[in-house]
Amino acid sequence: MLTETPLGTYIHPVDSTAGAWTVTHADRPHMYRIVHRLPDGVARVDTLVDPDNLESKLQKWAREGFVRHVPEETDARPERHRFMQALKRVSKDTEAIAFSLPNGAGGPLVPAVDPAYLFTSRTHNVLLDIGENRRILLVGHTGTGKTSLIEQIAAQTNQGVLRSNMNGQTTVGDFVGFWTVKGGETIWIDGVLPTAMREGLWLIIDEVDFAEPAILAVLTAVLEPNGRLLLKEKGNEIVAPHASFRLFATANAVGAMSQYRHLYQGANVMNEAFLDRWRVYQIDYMPPADEARVLMRRFGDRLTDDMATTLAAIAADCREAFVREDLSSAFSTRRLIDWTDLMLRTGDPESAAGPTIYAKVTAEDAALIRGIIARHIAL
Ligand SMILES: Nc1ncnc2c1ncn2[C@@H]1O[C@H](COP(=O)(O)OP(=O)(O)O)[C@@H](O)[C@H]1O
Ligand SMILES: [Mg+2]
Q1: Mutate to test the pocket of ligand 1, among 136, 137, 148 (most ligand atoms within 8 A of CB)
Q2: In a designed cystine with 215, which of 152, 196, 211, 250 is the match (CB 3.0 to 4.6 A)?
């Protein structure tokens, strides 16, 4: 006897050549229709069976390792499975090359390796994109780990990095270059962009959503993989990119993060044509379990598992409050590490929070954070 509904598509989770068996109600009462399609989409079997016959088929498929998928999702459109099976087949080769970036030229601009740094699954695609010379824009809240992801990949691959922050005093001159007088002579000084392009450095443009239009215009010209830079101010000199040159940007409130623009005063809207030239990855705060691992790696035996879990939970609660707009300040991993560091010295979470948290936020935020901490730790 058939106990539960047998309708649905049965696929093999491992053997992608096995195809899919689909069971639907037949037009005739008490009969079922069975269709078997191979990954090429051609139906090899298309037959009507009675319940007993279906029952023995179900047992056979179960023995062979087929599993059923929810009918309403799959019934009408078995090709959805074929798509995923085919994609898995063609994409699995990429896994092997995950960490095989060519080594950089080294030098003083290589960031220091952070031994506590945790490469999570979000690293994989970014690495492949760097290999393919794609422009990468990381969007996410303050302190989610956008800049450090690029820096730590650079540190691992011995690659020099320049950074330029757009939320500050960066001028077109700083970015592109300028003429100056030195020892009675007028000389040209390259800005960060031509410097990185000529010397094969990676350039991280932080907070690109604050960049002034003149800088964005220059930037757009070099967004194509082999895009050249025209130095108009220097008699139209053309700067071709070194093979190792890569361009990264970070932003808080772009694309999928636009809903949070009001939290980042002064951020500009990036137009679609600009965004389309980048691979845009949304970077969220690490899941609490990962963040607890980062704390354990950072502080070793000085911190128990339990303490790390509690601290990560406090950070997660503060971030929820930030997104709800109860808190006006973000709670970065950096802040969490710094607070932990100081409390391990003072033995007191509350006094350690003074210089590492409370003094950096408004009085209302400090009170709210104190409340969140007190929910987790009996101070
Ligand atoms: N995966 C990680 N492992 C360890 N530390 C991390 C990780 N991601 C972020 N951090 C830490 O979090 C802090 C904030 O990261 P950062 O890259 O400056 O954030 P953002 O650029 O998004 O503002 C840094 O101190 C960094 O070391
Ligand atoms: Mg940053």
Answers
A1: 148
A2: 211
